[in-house]
Amino acid sequence: MNKVTVNKLQTLRGHNDAIYTLIGFDESHFLSGAGDGMVAMWDLAQPENGQLIAKVPASVYALAYEPGSGQLIVGQNFEGIHYIDVATKTETNSLKINDKAIFDLQFMGDKLLVGTGTGEVVVVDWKKNVIVHRLELTTVSARTIAVHPSGSEFAVGYSDHSIRIFDGEKIQLKKEIKSHTNSVFTLKYSPDGKLLLSAGRDAHLKIWEVDATYDLAEDIVAHMYAINNIHFSPNGKHFVTCSMDKSIKVWDASAFKLLKVIDKARHAGHGTSVNKLYWSPFEDQLVSCSDDRTISIWDIKFERKL
Fold first, then answer.
1. Which among 5, 217, 273, 274 is least buried, having the fewest CB atoms inside 10 angstroms?
2. SS3 for 189?
3. Does the pTM exceed 0.90?
4. Could you give the C-alpha distances from 73 to 83, 122, 245, 254, in angstroms and in order?
């Protein structure tokens, strides 16, 4: 049995509105996006001072960074995406998608997958900055996208309570799963690609067996309120979930057992909804962001009890 100890290392302030998204940039840096339209970069080695990278006219719900090209894509809550040169902190291009919010952005090779409030999943050739596909299977929001580690397929979670699986090469629907009883907010493939984890407004965490045509393996009532995000540890042995119930939970990725609850009462956690997580390879530090306009950095240690 593992003993888990949690230590809060830092509280970062600088955004003027709820912080909705976090992504990794390199070994020690990560990016945050918020309702104030700002995208900031932070260094876990020296976390006190963030750098403003970009400012867009509306809330930022989604970010995507492609390290091979150095391309940062910013999705705002209406109309389009913005291409940012991080080194010069300048916008190099933009593309109108539609007139609704952009909830998720994920790279898949030379394609960028865009989940939108219209229910469309828009596929962009990001090198050419042109739309190549519009997947319109429902009129309610496409909230979250996960790309299989092989790149052969991708999953989309929707506000019609469904998960849809698409062929990554043909960009065609392969399977539809009536997965939850409310909106699906977060999807994540396991690092080995054998499992798909899903969660959302119904507060259930579900684990699907990819090889067995996405059969349901586990259904766990994981939080009190909506689950906003799932993220795996760098070594793949653990994952974390965060929720509108203000808590972060640490799980064993092989047994799906709850190991630790991180909250305000016990660990000086967030005071409002925890929106996104990023588990960095830099000293295995966990980063969380919240409606309370702060970013928290956590040290999590796993010790085997004899």
1. 5
2. strand
3. yes
4. 5, 14, 30, 33
